[in-house]
Design goal:
Layout: E1 15-21, H1 25-41, H2 48-65, E2 73-79, E3 83-90, H3 111-118, E4 121-126, E5 131-138, E6 174-176
Antiparallel strand pairs: 1-2, 2-3, 3-5, 4-5, 4-6
Helix pairs in contact: 1-2, 2-3
Length: about 180
């Protein structure tokens, strides 16, 4: 069963977009811009920046850690009544992502920390060939929008639920964060 088929029937896709990209740095830019434009066209321009960041980080990870010569990576955007889901699939199923703490002088290693801070939920799903890494942004109603000053990524209801141990690869489970409201 693919990740798109796992969307609950009571929350069917309102819009979706799927495109394969060549594993080049230019493709990350194209995917990011396309995602931001589409989310705006779908009526959620206020979330376009977050979607662009998530697509950029997940596509960059697919490019750096999941690409194989001659194989494409796929970006799939899904809008339901309750969430925007970003899926990036690549052919390297044996290379699972995981949160880790990057050293101060490292150029890389902070992408999933950003994904974890921005997304309401993210995880990894195995595929027959490769894997899909997804991130979801919950769509909030006007009553649930935070009022007053707040920190980006702050969770007033408490700490996030336990996730993977830093430095360890994530399994085929989902990392879930409490909604930021």
């Amino acid at each position: 069963m693919t990740a798109a088929q796992e969307v609950p029937e009571d929350n069917p896709p309102l819009h979706d977009d799927l495109l394969d990209y060549t594993p080049t740095a230019r493709s990350v830019t194209l995917a990011r811009r396309r995602a931001a434009r589409l989310v705006g066209e779908w009526g959620h321009a206020d979330r376009a920046g977050e979607v662009a960041l998530l697509v950029s980080e997940l596509a960059t990870n697919a490019l750096i850690h999941g690409s194989l010569r001659g194989r494409l990576f796929r970006v799939h955007l899904i809008l339901t009544g309750g969430a925007i889901r970003i899926e990036v699939s690549d052919p390297r199923g044996e290379r699972l992502p995981g949160l880790r703490e990057a050293e101060r002088d490292e150029c890389y290693g902070r992408g999933l920390v950003l994904v974890d801070a921005v997304a309401d939920r993210w995880g990894v799903e195995p595929r027959t060939v490769g894997k899909t890494v997804f991130a979801e942004l919950a769509l909030r109603t006007a009553e649930a929008v935070p009022r007053g000053p707040h920190r980006l990524g702050a969770d007033p209801s408490g700490p996030p639920e336990a996730g993977p141990v830093p430095g360890q690869a994530a399994g085929p489970t989902t990392m879930t964060r409490r909604p930021r409201v």
